[in-house]
Amino acid sequence: MPDQGPRDTHLTGRNGFRVVPVADAEAAKDVTARALAGAIQAARAGGAERVRVALSGGGTPVGAYERLATMVEDWPSIDVFLADERCVPYDDEDSNARLVDEALGTDRGHVLHRLSEVGSPGDRAKAYAHDIGDAPMDVVLLGLGEDGHTASLEPEHPSLEAEGVTVAVLDMKKPPPERVSLTIPALRAAGVVLLLVTGEGKSEALARTLGSQGVEAPASLLPAETMTVIADEAALTRPRAEQVFSS
Questions:
Q1: Does residue 67 belong to any structural domain of this protein?
Q2: What is a biological process (GO) this protein takes part in (predicted)?
Q3: pTM for the whole structure
Q4: Is there a domain that residue 1 lies in?
């Protein structure tokens, strides 16, 4: 398990997920950056010549990536994929690829695997799956939406049943609606999964994720053995109130 902060302060969700509580969003960025760096180091120590990382978009992850950029050496040996991407051009304000590139710094030399800008969402999903290949991700960073979605996998959506590595999503509630996402099987195969959750607005979704396992909370479908949740106190308000932590 990568370095994810103090070892004696973690909680365990009812579904077995390890939860690292932090004070606020700024602390979450620091802990997440250290966890990502630790997972990358562990993959290298395990013999990986190239480390495979899948990252998500969002304001809080950006702060973690900016910190991560200075913690890791030999960026050219790291393949950076996207846990999900909007079907928009690279320079669009909604592009996760652009966000990740700018946060890490384009001079780092990392290899960013971008979604094709040509073809239908289905065509792009197939092309991205081919780019990813069969090897699992060494580490994945996910976020959690207020509605409970993770990557671009919404609660109780048919995309949760997709097989293979990627799935095209045509009707995401939050625009833009057309996206490509890693599938539940691809996320389940990852060596380390980090779920970053900050803010009281996501507290109810986090309580569902930690309290049980089911399609109403897509992240809950991932294995406890590889999952670590990094959550600030605002996000932990409802989970604490609903007592979703095991004793």
A1: yes
A2: pentose-phosphate shunt
A3: 0.95
A4: no
